[in-house]
Amino acid sequence: MISTIINLRLGSYTVSALRDLQEHFPRVRDAFPDVSNEELTQLTRQYPATVTPDGFLDSPTFAFLIRGSGQTMLVDTGMGPRPSPFSGQTGTLLSMLSDAGVDPPDITTVFLTHAHPDHLGWILDLKMQPTFANARHVINRRELGSAPPPARLILDLLQKQNLLESFEDTWTLGETLQTVFTPGHTPGHTSLLLHSDGAQLLFLGDALVHPVQLQHPEWVMGLDHDSQQAIHTRQEVMAWASAGHGWLAATHFQRPFVRAEASLGRADSGNSAG
Ligand SMILES: [Zn+2]
């Protein structure tokens, strides 16, 4: 398990990728149900570190810490303290935050890209109390209606404690953070754009789950709620990124920070930053 914090300096902000987990996800065959065996073989050849010898995706789950302009905020919260249904492992986000010099009460805002368990995990501790008790937790309102029951329970508890802020169309924080609606993986899936001093970073959430989707936005993940919408969203993200607008931050890429225009068309790597 690699526990190194990966930092990216973006204008006057520091963004840290904190690896909550590294685990074996579904078989690559099940992850991309519509892709041919030949293409999957190509994927394994191109991204060998992401596929185990017995054909499972080997995937990290990152949360992102943003520090700057008086903010100490998280984008998503990893799988959390309860055992992952895939591997039985528990997440390490809190110790990584501690290594970064941050205590949970320091977190001012938690932005949630969507209501899947590997993104909501640390919101409640093992006593079902808010881990980030001083933070407002921000999520697209569409996710409240479509969240699976365990996620619904978490969000309801936050709501009762006045720690949940849901938004209808867009949400902004100051002049530097704004939402970008990226539906498909879930109905209300929303990415977050950080811009500072001419530099930009788009927190993808699960709009792209594997770096092969940088070259193949049309490759549908079995977990995507609406596959056509997910393809459309990935194409829009890639149009933005390949025009040189900035960095992408991806929850489940081995190297979480990507400058997409540099990696498009490259056969050796889908990631150019670390
Ligand atoms: Zn995820």
TrEMBL record:
SUPFAM superfamilies: Metallo-hydrolase/oxidoreductase. CDD domains: OPHC2-like_MBL-fold. Keywords: Hydrolase, Metal-binding, Zinc. Residues 60-245 form the Metallo-beta-lactamase domain. Transmembrane segments: none annotated. Belongs to the metallo-beta-lactamase superfamily. This is MBL fold metallo-hydrolase. It comes from Deinococcus oregonensis.
